[in-house]
Structures are given as C-alpha cells and as structure tokens.
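[audit] Reproducing an earlier prediction to check determinism. Same input, same settings, fresh worker. If the tokens differ from the archived copy the diff job will pick it up downstream; this log only records the rerun itself.
[audit] input (324 residues):
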Amino acid sequence: MSKTFLGVDAGATKTHALILNEDGAVLGFGESGPGNHESFGYEAAGKCIGDSIRQACAEASLEISDLTQSCFCLAGADVDSDFETLPEVMLRPIMGESPFLLKNDAFGCLRGGTTDPFGVMVNCGTAQVAVGRNREGKEIRLGGYGFEFGDFAGGGVIAMWAACALIREEDGRGEPTRLSPLLRERAQVSNAAEFLNKTYRDPEFFASLKIPKLVFLASREGDPIAKKIVLDCAEEMAVTAVALIQRLKMEEEVFDLVTAGSVFKGEDPDFIESIQKTVHSVAPKARFTMPLFDPVAGAALLAFEDAGLVADEAVYKQLEAFKL
C-alpha cells in the first residue's frame, strides 16, 4: 500500500484535515467545526477533529490505521502541559495506535507558507504569534500568549489602542484624532459615553466593528495617532522576527519570511515597509512572502517529511491545485 500522510489544522472556528500520498497527491479532505480545546473543551474539540479526519479518510478510501504518519497543528497547543495532556486525552482516542506529531498551529502556517522546510513565519491576525525553523531543524515559537504575557501586536491590540484614543480625546486626556469620528460612525453612536455603553460589556459587538481597518484607513490619511498605532504594531512584529532570526542564527541565511494574518492585508504600506527595514538590517537575505499554501497543507507536509520524504517541485505542483 502507498504511504499516506494526514495533516490537521484546528482552530477556534474550523478544523481541516488533508491526506497526501507519497507523491504529494491529495487523496482526501475533511472539514468540521472548531477544534480548539481551550475554547470548547476536550470533548467538543476532539469530536470536530475526529469528524474532519473521518471525512478525509472516507474520501481517500482509507482507515485511520492505514495512515503512515500524521501531524496535528492545533491552536491551543501552547504550554508544556498541553503537549502532555492533548495526545492522551484528545488525540489517541481518535488515532488509536496510528503515529502522529503534535505542534502548535503556527508551525503548519510556516510550513505551508514556503517551499522550504525552514524559514520564519510572523502571524499578525486578531492576535500575534511567530515561529521559526532553521536548516538544522531547530524550532522556536515566540508569542501567542496574549497582551498580558508580552504580545503587543495583533488586531485586538490595534483595536484596543484605537478605542483608547477615542475615549481619551473625548475626556480631555488625549489629542484629537481622525479615529474618533470613524469609530463613532462605525458603532453608530454620537459620543464616547454611547460608545462605552455599546461596547464595554459586549466583546462580540466590539469585534464586529473591524476597528483595525479603520486604523489603517486613518493612518493612510495621515492621522498621527493612527500612524503611531500602526507603526508600534509593526515594530513589535519586527522585534519578534529579529529575535527568532537571531536565536536560530539565520542572520546570513537566505530564507522565506512568511507574513500571515489579516493585519498584513492592511492598506498602509508603511506597516510592512517598516518591518522589512528592521528585519533586513539584521538579515538582509530574508525574502518576505505571503503564504503559498493553506496551513492544513503545511501540516500534511510536516507529516510527509517526518517520514523521511522530501517535498519536491512535483509535490508542490499538486498542492497548488488544492485551494480551500
């Protein structure tokens, strides 16, 4: 029987499962609900993960026991205790005796972002996280633990500082900013008190305002407070990338630096240019790139390579045809 490899990418909104054969051909795909145990508990997250795997196996005409190697890239696989608990409590009941790897979901994003089995990935979405892997196979993760534990970038932080600017302008502690009318209009309120009434105890409504887009708009229009928020976020991502590069001793290497997450789709060119300037002062051969493949493809490639296989141009050509 041909060797087969499963990749699973599970987060707070969905779970994807993908099966490749040893030639890199996509044999099966499955999709289910959220697979993050931190948000939904082991039982609910495990069910979604299992459902997605069974869908992929059914499409590939395989049993789970037929899989040569699997790799789970899971949001919420964060601290040492997760790597002790998750395999036995949530994954082994699904996989039986079939072998598997467990990694944080950021590593699937890195591997899916480039055609090299090494590189650096900085993700700036609602939150931030960054991972790197050098040519020797050493892996490091930085961040992804929240503002309280040192993460000062991401859409959530951008939105927080924008809301602060609105409140502080209107109560006299801050300077006038274009952000204030933009936020009031988006929230359909006329003043800071009404903004607080609608958002203070309603994080879902606050998130629905998509404030980072407004910050990038105001920054592009030249608002100094919005520009500072954007550039502070860029500095945090640059500092994080540089720390990874230096710890992995990649300063003189040629490698892809994958930029993932919604904030990198912002409309102010100063954001990415600021990051590039800082990174290139340390690692001039770093190649900035957006992700090439979906994270679940990255997870499958990690399983593929753990079995000793090498992804070549033919493998990547087949993966290019797989789009979610």
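[audit] rerun output stored. Observation attached for the diff report: The beta strands are 4-10, 15-21, 26-32, 69-74, 100-104, 119-124, 128-133, 139-142, 255-260, 286-289.
[audit] end
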